[in-house]
Design a protein that fits this description.
By secondary structure, the protein is α+β, with helices and mostly antiparallel strands. The chain has one domain: SH3 type barrels, CATH 2.30.30. It has 2 helices and 7 strands. The protein is globular and about 40 Å long. The N and C termini lie far apart (37 Å).
Length: 129
């Protein structure tokens, strides 16, 4: 049996998200954002708020940025970037899912990626391109 995604619940949450103020953010920060319910193999948010952690990869202005969804699931290969985060818990940046986000999606800041790891993930993305 196939799991049915709840696009109606996400639509209700998305209407609320659109009315939110934009929060201040910087590159290297890790935020929980309202990622939503997406199609196919695209990363989705979880819970009633459809939240997922992301890495702010490139800030363009105070409104939009490129972000990379994160996962606690251990994944290996050139499309993933494993790194240690809070309490030495291993996280994984899914670099193939890099995309543009509006700052209205930001919910709360969770931390910051270490500088050396940020330099390494930039190199990994350059190699992928």
């Amino acid at each position: 049996m196939r799991f049915m995604k709840d696009f109606d619940a996400w639509n209700r949450q998305k209407k609320h998200t659109e009315s939110q103020d934009r929060l201040f953010f910087q590159e290297r920060e890790i935020w929980f954002i309202r990622l939503g319910e997406n199609v196919g193999f695209e990363q989705c948010g979880k819970g009633s708020k459809f939240l997922r952690p992301i890495l702010v990869f490139k800030k363009f202005n105070n409104q939009v940025f490129w972000g990379i969804p994160l996962s606690k699931t251990k994944k290996r290969g050139k499309y993933y970037f494993p790194f240690q985060f809070k309490n030495n818990v291993e996280s994984c940046a899914i670099i193939t899912q890099l995309r543009l986000f509006d700052a209205k999606r930001l919910k709360y800041k969770h931390g910051m990626m270490r500088k050396n790891e940020f330099v390494s993930i930039k190199k990994a993305i350059q190699q992928l391109l």
